[in-house]
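BUG-1035 | component: ligand-complex export | severity: low

The export step for adenosine-5'-diphosphate jobs runs without errors, but we want the raw record kept on the ticket for reference. Input record follows.
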Amino acid sequence: MVEESGAKEASRPDIVMQSRQSADAKLSCRGLWKLFGDDAERFLARCDGHPSAEQIAGAGYIGAVRDANLDVHDGEVFVIMGLSGSGKSTIVRCLSRLVEPTGGELLFEGEDLLAADEKQLTEIRRHKMGMVFQHFALLPHLSVLGNVAFPLEIQGVDRATRERRAMEVIELVGLEGRETYFPRELSGGQQQRVGIARSLAVEPDVWFLDEPFSALDPLIRREMQDEFLRLQRVLHKTIVFITHDFDEAIRLADRIAIMKAGEIVQIGSPEELVTNPATQYVAEFTRDVDRSKVLSVRSVTTQAEDIGEVAGEVKADERIGEVAHRVVNADRPFAVMDETGRVIGRLEKNAVLDVLAPHGSRDVAAQ
Amino acid sequence: MTALTGVETRPAVVRRPTVLLWALTLAVLLALWFAGARMEWLAHYPDEWVLPLRDWVSEAMEWLVKEATFGLFTFKEFTRGIAWLLNVPLQACLVLLAHGLEVPLGEESSILIPPLSWLGVLGGVTWLAWRVGSRGLAILVGTCFAYLAVFGQWNSAMVTLSSILVAVPVGIVCGGLLGILGYRSHAFERAITPVLDLMQTVPVFAYLVPVLFLFGFGPVSAMIATIIYAMPPMVRMTMLALRGVSAEVLEFGRMAGCSERQMLWKVLLPSARHSLMVGVNQVIMLSLNMVIIASMIGAGGLGHDVLTSLRRLAIGDGLEAGVAITVLAISLDRLSQAVANRGATPVHLQTEQGFADRHTTLLGIAGILLGTYVLAFFIPALRSYPDQLVIDTGPLFENLVAWVNVHLYIYLDAVKSWLLINLLIPFKRLLIDAPWPGVAVVLAMAGWRIGGWRLGALVASLAIFIAVTGNWEKAMVSAYLCGISVVLAMAIGLPIGILAAGSERFHRIAQNIADTLQTLPSFVYLIPVVMLFQVGDFSAMVAITAYAVAPAIRYTDHGLRGVPGEVIEAAKMSGCRRGQLLWKVKVPLAMPEIMLGVNQTIMMALSMLVITALVGTRDLGQEVYIALTRADTGLGLVAGVCVAFLAIIADRLIGAWAARRKRELGLD
Ligand SMILES: Nc1ncnc2c1ncn2[C@@H]1O[C@H](COP(=O)(O)OP(=O)(O)O)[C@@H](O)[C@H]1O
Ligand SMILES: [Mg+2]
């Protein structure tokens, strides 16, 4: 809670935008709009590019994405989270121009993506983008091998090369031995592994995943999340990941954008969202989150030059849950060190206990 | 439970104006009826008012054939070109399967290259059935083809099969292409849908007339008629199947960077192939049905045999050929379904496979055909099935017919006369005497109440079109025959459907009966009917009823099975007895589906109606048939369109009612 004011600043979307230069963003959009309905461009222009929610509804349009600004940085997992119908699928499809935005700017690797013609777009999609779908979208007539090699086949890669490459990714997702199976013969989790392998076959720069695990059973979903984290540790892709599940978002994300009714309400790291929800709406999501898994040691460090006697030392960017056991069982505070090994303060037992059992619940327990 | 109460009681406010309106309509009808006694034009549409539409159509066709030109070539050259193009593969099939090829050697002598061995063909299809289906299918198909050989139907059957082998692929490709166009362009779809609607309701004979006029008499024109007739479902199924491909799969295709062509061939068509195969099966069945009917314009083969024996009233020969058609239809139907199902569920292969392994089916067929072909040079019995081994059932059937005539005639005739005097003739009189403007008013009223003023205007103007083109009375005869047959078909089909919905065992039996009835080409129904009841309205009614009963069974069964389980449980918990459950809960909820069954039954009845012209009815079907024998395109097309309009009136009214009811019951 020490950095409270600073974190609040950083979590306001407009400030996040300005503080990060879009030059180092892989993919970014500015003032992006998508309205469904006839002649939406004209309507948008009539309203000076900024219709209110009432104007949109009144004119009979659906405001699927409204004035969205975001930057996805190289190598990060950027999660877009929101309830069903909040516009997540639409925004991610705007980013790949599967859906044509009604207005706004779209930059991919610093180039204006909206200026690309159909041919350039096809080239970009063939070589630089991959997408995983909620319901897998596998081709039923092709085997696992055929499905994974499909994007390469479309590019005209010869059979031997594309099958060799496909086998590599099939092994990467742990499906070796199943390459002659057809989608129908696989479980949901296995089918999505095929979907993942297929989208990775072309070694995309940007990887879109639209609710990839939502159609799976909870246990399998968990397993696939672990698998996803393992892959990302190996691959370091730039990822836009869609989910309606806040826990999933927190597990996987470097940064999260929360959407509501077509608007991005807040963008920030899981920790920023939990410590400084921008609105009541975000606070609702974060309330039941296990804070010890989200908050870092840094966020509850008591800053001091002289830290006195300590029981040991912890790193500032460790999660509290990871160090809690040691801190709670020691009779003295711990020293907190930053990345460079410099001591920045101490970690008190009470601060950790506060996170493990927040005030509210302790009050209830006391009554 | 809200659905249940909704069925039982409607607010009285809604009810009263409806009752009043109907009372008013009825009063108008009766008034017109009585006025008809004074004013002749009310009772009978006056001849001098008839629009000479048929003459105009005939003249237009005349112009098309004699004078129309596309600049580079004339219309006539165009039709000739198409005929020539289709004749090449047809002749090739005929040479292979039926006739062989005569190659002239010098002046006098010539050498005959024989067709494929009958045993080879039999073995080939059996092998195919075994590979794509099961041992059971192989036995079925093998037995069917063996029947053709043993009972002396082989040559005719091969001629029919040749037409099918050419017509089906052409129909599939053309239908598929049109379907793809419709999928790509909404404008094209909107343009083609009403045409398809009309094509599927115009009776089959009506196709034959213009084709006969444009392409002449012969196997190729018969095949063209077959293709045109069998294509519409393929067009429809293709559009439906492609639209059914999930949005995600399409998006995947775009993300993978597919070009338009890659998208179509590598993503869309393969993903939709299961639904597409349903269309293919439809094309096969319709082609088979049509190629028989097309014997009237020279298709030859089995249809020709049936037709000539019907004309000679040689029931025995007709039955033999009829069974042969049935047998051929059943084997082709089951074969194509097996192929469709196999294609739908691919199974992974355990090991790496070589060329021979991957193409066992084709290599096997080629081997069998070639082997028997060569062997046949040494063993003539393999070339064509030996005549002395042919079993001729003709006399047997003749005896059967004779026996029926001697022993059953009195009873059959008594039933027939009683029904004719007490039911058929009075009903016919009623419809013919009804004043045509009155009927139009009733239809308009029904349309308006069910589906709004557009529907009312549509059905009324269709009815008036029938009157204006001078076909009113004939149309009423059609309506009477069709109406009585549909009532009968429902009276038979409804109880069977209810039984089938109640028990699994009965369900399977009913399913099989319905399947078989629908596989039989319509021609076949005429044979036993004529055998038992001679020609006339009564025979027509029996044939139509038998042909149209299948959808009545199917839809009733399906509708009752579709009633949500929770509703049934709720009804049981509130203490319904079995009978109450059926009549108070299940039937009302299944009613929209059952009505769609009635609708289908009417469509089937109308398509059969025209064919019963062969057994001497006096209705629109007869008009079309006469037009065919005189190659009078105007008469044929106009009468055909009138039948189609009857069908469309029934279809729109019932369809709108069922859709509204479904919405009200929340079953969508
Ligand atoms: N093609 C479309 N036409 C009209 N409305 C659409 C279309 N696609 C999505 N919408 C609407 O846009 C809104 C956002 O949809 P979507 O992006 O699919 O939400 P999410 O993926 O978050 O569930 C919803 O109200 C949806 O009904
Ligand atoms: Mg979505």
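Assignee comment: Attached the raw record above. Residues 394-433 of chain B form the longest helix (40 residues).
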